[in-house]
Design brief:
By secondary structure, this protein is mostly beta strands. The chain is built from 2 helices and 11 strands, in the order E-E-E-E-E-E-H-E-E-E-E-E-H. It is elongated and about 55 Å long.
């Protein structure tokens, strides 16, 4: 599926059907998985990839790893410092690809650090929900180094190594609702 298979227009990210998840090595032997429970923003599908974009905001305080003590530590100044930096952002600068090989490049801001990140993109499709709303699904993934964003806290282990790994695998799953589409674009996409 290509972006031209999705109706042009502005799509609102549906927070109740979207999530940002992550995994990171713990004690260098296992992975801890977590998620941010609130993501919002818009996806613009243009006439071509060059005029398409993504603007997403993630509420960092909604982080959950199923361990409240760890989550409080992640919200603290040692990591995300949510009191000073409550929102993580993704602002695309480039959308491109063909066939199944799609990617989004953009500026990701965590705390007060902005870095260029490339996400591999999968377009999930277009459908109508039972209430007649047009929905589209998108999935994106990347790996970042947390230290590049100022998330440097760690503790050494007596046996060597550290408590928290540096590489973070990130998955973004989005369901978005179309605000408005040009006449005939929806019918063509759904019939597609």
């Amino acid at each position: 599926m290509a972006t031209h298979d999705i109706p042009t227009g502005t799509w609102q990210i549906d927070p109740s059907h979207s999530a940002v998840t992550f995994s990171v090595r713990h004690l260098m032997v296992s992975k801890v998985r977590g998620r941010f429970g609130s993501v919002s923003g818009t996806i613009t599908i243009g006439e071509n990839e060059a005029t398409s974009s993504v603007d997403a905001d993630i509420d960092v305080a909604t982080i959950s790893t199923d361990d409240e003590k760890r989550d409080q530590h992640l919200r603290s100044a040692d990591f995300f410092d949510v009191e000073r930096f409550p929102t993580m952002t993704i602002r695309s600068t480039e959308v491109g690809g063909d066939g199944d090989g799609w990617s989004i490049a953009g500026d990701v801001t965590i705390r007060d650090v902005t870095q260029r990140v490339v996400f591999e993109l999968e377009l999930g499709g277009v459908s109508q929900d039972p209430w007649g709303n047009t929905k589209a699904g998108f999935s994106a993934s990347t790996t970042i180094n947390r230290k590049d964003f100022g998330l440097g806290w760690n503790a050494p282990l007596e046996t060597g190594g550290v408590v928290v790994g540096d590489k973070i695998q990130v998955e973004v799953d989005i369901e978005a609702a179309l605000e408005a589409a040009p006449e005939g674009a929806l019918a063509a996409a759904v019939a597609g």
